[in-house]
Structure formats: structure tokens, C-alpha cells
Amino acid sequence: MRVLVVEDQAKLATIVAAGLRRAGMAVDVAFDGTDALEHTACTEYDVIVLDRDLPGVHGDEVCRTLNAGRSPARILMLTGARTVGDRIEGLGLGADDYLPKPFDFGELVARIRALVRRPGVSLPPALSHNDLRLDSARRKVTRAGRELALNPKEFAVLEVLLGAGGAVVSAEQLFERVWDEHADPFSQAVKTTMSRLRAKLGNPPVIETVARSGYRIA
């Protein structure tokens, strides 16, 4: 999944982003409200982790703007305020979930994954095709009952392809969904990851290359 972390405390933003990447997510970072709106204008995110108390354009205004523009992203609002009234107000702005600081990192990851599984975002907790099964919650892939050791990018590419339900996914779409903004778009990242993934999936082949179009589960 593609996640935007909006947090003005650079150290906290860096720590959260690094942890989410270890959890297999593609993560971009914005340090203020203006930066966040610029990111969302260019990239479609599954979840936005939004600090409410941002300098400049306040987190409340970012949330209102995204909802007014019918952004498909789920919004998880973070704040140092811990009262029930604050939570109600945050949810009233259009946030999908609300997490007070300080928070347990495991809970943050669980809440992000739960948001993506909600109706309107097509990512069920488990995906399968014939003898291949991918469990998003446990980060586990098996084929014919045998567990496969996939790295985070391989897992994410397979997740996107399985989630497409047999539709063709272009290399550009895979790059957009799996890699963050710091990745080199002219690299061979998709091709290299696809080659490794196919080798690990074994035979008979599961991923088909569609000439001049992309890839699909076959």
C-alpha cells in the first residue's frame, strides 16, 4: 500500500516512515500541511497518517480539503490531545480513525491495515489464486502449502497483482503503488523484482507478461 506520513517533527516522521517501510509499505513524508496537499495532488495514497497540529496549513484544514476533493485516501489523524471531545472533533472533520500520541507502533500499523480493508478500498485480508495464497495481515505467502520467503517489495508486487483479479497492471502502476517518491523511476526496479518474484513462485508460472501492457496473474 502507498502511505503518506504528515508530521512536522522531522525525527518522529523519519522514525514512523522507516517503521512502516519495514512493515512492507511504500511511504512518502510531508512536513507541513502545504507539502501534504502538494503530495496528494500528484499521488494517490491508500492511507494518510496526518498530524493534526501542523504549522502553516493546519491538519484540520488538510483533512477538510481532502474530503472536499473526494480523496480516496483513508485519513488516520494523530494528535497529542487525548480527550474524548478531541477525538469526536477529529472524526467530525472527516478523519477515518484517530490515534492519540504517544502511540504504540504496532497499533499504528494495525490501524493502517484495518483502514485499507474497509469497504471502498479493495484490499481484503487474504488473496488467493489456485494454490497460491497471500495473507496480508500475517505477511505470509504460500504456494501448495509451502511458505515462500518474499522480501517486502516482492510481497507488495504480488499483492497488487492478486488484488487486480487478473486485470493487467502496468509497470508504471506497480512502481507507483510499491515504491516511494525517492525511488528512481528510470531504474530496473520493477523488472528486477518481478524476475526474483517469479523465481520464488516457481512452476507452473503464475505471472504473465502482456506485451507492451504490463503483467497479470494467469
Explain the overall architecture.
The chain has 218 residues and is of the alpha/beta class. It folds into 2 domains: 2-116, 3-Layer(aba) Sandwich (Rossmann fold); 126-217, Winged helix-like DNA-binding domain superfamily/Winged helix DNA-binding domain (Arc Repressor Mutant, subunit A, Orthogonal Bundle). Helix content is 40%, strand content 22%. It contains 8 helices and 11 strands. It has helices spanning 10-22, 33-42, 59-68, 84-92, 105-116, 152-163, 171-178, 189-201; strands at residues 2-6, 26-30, 47-51, 74-79, 97-100, 126-129, 132-135, 140-143, 146-148, 207-210, 214-217. The strands form 3 sheets. A 5-stranded parallel beta sheet has the order 2-1-3-4-5, with helices on both faces. α3 links the parallel β3 (47-51) and β4 (74-79). The radius of gyration is 18 Å and the shape is elongated. The chain starts with a strand and ends with a strand. The relative contact order is 0.12. The mean pLDDT is 87.
